[in-house]
Amino acid sequence: MALSRRDVLRWAGAAVAAGGTVAAGSAPAAGGTVAASGAPAVARPGRWARLRARLAGELLVPGDDGYAAARLPFNSLFDHHRPAAIARCARAEDVQRCLEEARRGRIRVAARGGGHSYAAYSTPHDGLVVDLGPMAGIDVRPDGTAVIGAGARLGDVYAALAAAGRCLPLGNCPSVGIAGLTLGGGLGWVDRALGLTCDWLRAARVVTVDSRLVTASEDREPDLFWALRGGGGGNFGVVTSFEFATAPAPEVLTVFRLRFPAGSAADVLGAWQPWSAGAPDRLSSTCVVLPDGSVDLTGCSIGPAAALLGDLARLGVDGQLEHAEVDYPTATAIMTQGHPPRNAFRASSRIADGMWDDPAAVAGTVRGKDSALLIVGALGGAIDRLGPTDTAYPHRGAPTSIEVFGTVGDLPPELVTHEVDDAQSALAGLVGTGTYINYLDPEQEDWAATGYRHNLPRLRAVARRYDPDGVLRFPQAVGAR
Ligand SMILES: Cc1cc2nc3c(=O)[nH]c(=O)nc-3n(C[C@H](O)[C@H](O)[C@H](O)COP(=O)(O)OP(=O)(O)OC[C@H]3O[C@@H](n4cnc5c(N)ncnc54)[C@H](O)[C@@H]3O)c2cc1C
Questions:
Q1: What is the mean pLDDT of residues 441-462?
Q2: Please, what is the Cα angle at 271 between 266 and 274, to 5 degrees?
Q3: 30: CA distance to ligand 1 center in Å?
Q4: CA proximity to 400, closest of 383, 417, 385
């Protein structure tokens, strides 16, 4: 059945709201970066007056107008994080001054891009937020290169690139920051066609903890450049801007949704995984598996509907199909709809290394739960055009990402945490132990070994070189033990 644009916008919003991409949190102590000594310093008013005088941007401390709103992270489970100060950096020199002050005072410090860290690591309790928000310029050059300030949000990046007829593979939520997304890899709704966001990075301007402003690229600071492509936000320095190559925006795309009723998840997952792994690269898709065993399969195929319909004919399970052939800005609007401005949630991740033997057991990990659901995304395609050590993102070759997501809503947070942990532990035995580092779960013990895998030793060496005293350290930093 063909849909009007309005219909498609409505259902896509519903699907994403049901299971978009997620976040998780933990106890207050887990948030924020730690001082070099491990002991957080207490904020002293004189320090902030001195820093304020040296910044081109604003410095907000408790009691200032704007502090109460500026301190809030995306995940409202972490609203108890109260930073000692928030520096709204207007230029790279502001970032340099902040890191000088953090080193000198041995205070917790963390960069903030879009503020969507699952555990609010960009909002350190009692620490200094280096907020890149004001540095959000986007310059698309005639050769297609895009220079993007580290405070830019995906919605603005999509719009600026599309206006120039260009695109990048980006994520599903417009308020996520380009910084965190890129530094952790960057999965999205055209990733099988175009790869990860970080695969398009050509250079980054970075303030290192000793307050040098450096350029990282294949030729300059190559180890740092390697680490910035999937090594996780917050680990090696503060990026002030990114330079990306971009692709021409596709002229025609087909977005689709297939709905399957309660109890069908085992059959759908059994058919979908080999189908999605063998699908042409132009086709990306995601299954949202609900506790009643119903499945929402949504996706996007670059090109006309006829090609997608041929692909879907090979899926082998029948669902209620809706689809629409649209231009690139419309596809972007559809695939990024439905996210609330803030949310309280818990989430965790597993990467499947191969085809699963028991799809019923995979679906069963959330059967009957109150909150937890699975967001099962196809990997492969262009993501695998690079090898597992070419960038810090280690999961090249894996066919599937599974995110366990639980909205807290009116439920006790502990119940949702338990449900998410339970499903994630069961999945480890069913699909493999890999973890996507952008879905960093503070409750997950094996996050470092499973998030970075074979790249962990090299990442730790880069972290030791660029941050020998652990100025940027936080509970799940690459250098944390
Ligand atoms: C609603 C929602 C939807 C999402 N959708 C997707 C998706 O489609 N695809 C996907 O791959 N991921 C997705 N994610 C996960 C997302 O990629 C990560 O949470 C990411 O880290 C968020 O980046 P941010 O800049 O918004 O967050 P922030 O909280 O600002 O930063 C995240 C981490 O990076 C550090 N950091 C931030 N800026 C810088 C900088 N300039 N230099 C160095 N370190 C920095 C922070 O200190 C923190 O540790 C989603 C998350 C949410 C909450």
A1: 97
A2: 125
A3: 17
A4: 383
Nearest CA to ligand 1 atom 17: 181
Residues within a 6 A CB radius of ligand 1: 20-21, 23, 74, 110-118, 121-122, 132, 150, 171-173, 176-177, 179-181, 183-184, 186-188, 233-234, 238-239, 339, 438
DSSP state string for 62-120:
TTSTTHHHHT--SBGGGTT---SEEEE--SHHHHHHHHHHHHHHT--EEEESSS--TT-
Q: Quick one: which of 109, 124, 115 has its CA closest to 211?
A: 109
Spacing, Cα 438 to ligand 1 middle (Å): 7
Residue among 115, 127, 152 at smallest CA distance from 343 = 115
Instruction: Please give the structure tokens belonging to residue 141.
Output: 């050059």
User: Contact at 8 Å (CB) between 126 and 40?
Assistant: yes
Task: Please choose, from the candidates 100, 93, 102, 90, the residue with its C-alpha nearest in 3D space to the C-alpha of residue 59.
Answer: 90
126 DSSP 8-state letter = T
Domains of the chain, CATH where assigned: 5-22+252-452 (3.40.462.20), 28-131 (3.30.43.10), 138-248 (3.30.465.10)
pLDDT tens digits for range 213-266: 999 999 999 999 999 999 999 999 999 999 999 999 999 999 999 999 999 999
| Mutate-to-test residue for ligand 1 from 99, 128, 131, 181, highest number of ligand atoms within 8 A of CB | 181
Structure-token match 């231009």, residue found = 327
What is the CA(453)–ligand 1 centre distance, in A?
Answer: 20
Q: How far apart are the CA of 439 and the centre of ligand 1, in A?
A: 9
Angstrom distance (rounded) from CA 385 to CA 350: 21
Q: How far apart are CA 422 and CA 146, in angstroms?
A: 42
The rounded distance, in Å, linking the Cα atoms of 168 and 186 is 10
Other residues' Cβ atoms within 10 Å of the Cβ of residue 185: 25
Say if residue 15 is exposed, middle or buried (CB neighbours under 10 Å; 0-12, 13-18, 19+). Answer: buried
Alpha-carbon distance of 262 to 257, in angstroms, equals 16
Give the β-pairing of 128-131 and 85-88.
parallel
Identity of the amino acid at 356: W
* Stretch 369-380: mean pLDDT: 98
For 298-324, how does the pLDDT look when each residue is reduced to its tens digit (9 = 90+)?
Answer: 999 999 999 999 999 999 999 999 999
Please say whether the beta carbons of 242 and 204 come within 8 A: yes
pLDDT at 9 over 90: no
> Could you identify the atom of ligand 1 that is nearest to the CA of residue 150?
41
Summarised one tens digit per residue, pLDDT across range 391-428 is 999 999 999 999 999 999 999 999 999 999 999 999 99
For the cut 70, the answer to whether the pLDDT of residue 32 exceeds it is no
- In ligand 1, the atom with minimum distance to the C-alpha of 438 is 18
User: Which tokens is 327 given?
Assistant: 């231009």
